[in-house]
Design goal:
Elements (H helix, E strand, L loop, with lengths): L8 H16 L6 E6 L2 E7 L9 E5 L2 E8 L17 E8 L10 E5 L2 E7 L10 E2 L8 E2 L4
Antiparallel strand pairs: 1-2, 2-7, 3-4, 4-5, 6-7, 8-9
Length: 144
């Protein structure tokens, strides 16, 4: 009894459609992004990617993440399924002025690229004291 069908006409149609879509645009990869305290955290799923192929570039508020995953069958291999995407992957994020990309930290573990970007000092809330003429003590604006 065969565990895997060698030919599925519907799967072949889906694969052809997916390949034509991929030729029009470079494939991307899923991400999660959230604020955690005074940092902005982004996780990218990049399973099977060689860490040496990961390239991060920041220019004019745009963060570009590039990575590559390659698999080459060996001569004589009998391919039963070839569904995973291979090649170059790219994702761009527009970062606001409230972040400090110069202090960004990046790590890659278990197929997940994690970026930690601090919130810029100028974007953090701060207290402003209000002075009143003729009174020696300042009134804290947050106590109103």
């Amino acid at each position: 009894m065969s565990m895997l069908l060698r030919f599925d006409p519907f799967r072949e149609f889906d694969r052809a459609l997916e390949q034509s879509r991929n030729q029009l645009q470079r494939p991307s990869f899923p991400m999660d992004a959230y604020r955690h305290g005074d940092t902005f955290v982004v996780h990218f799923d990049l399973p099977g990617v060689d860490p040496a192929s990961i390239d991060l570039e920041y220019e004019r508020n745009v963060l570009s993440v590039n990575a590559e995953r390659a698999w080459r069958p060996v001569e004589g291999d009998d391919i039963l399924a070839n569904e995973r995407l291979h090649g170059s992957f790219r994702r761009q994020l527009l970062l606001g002025d409230t972040l400090d990309p110069s202090a960004m930290n990046a790590s890659y573990e278990n197929g997940v690229l994690t970026l930690i970007i601090p919130i810029a000092e100028k974007a953090k809330p701060r207290k402003v004291s209000v002075e009143t003429p003729g009174h020696p003590s300042a009134i804290d604006a947050s106590s109103r």
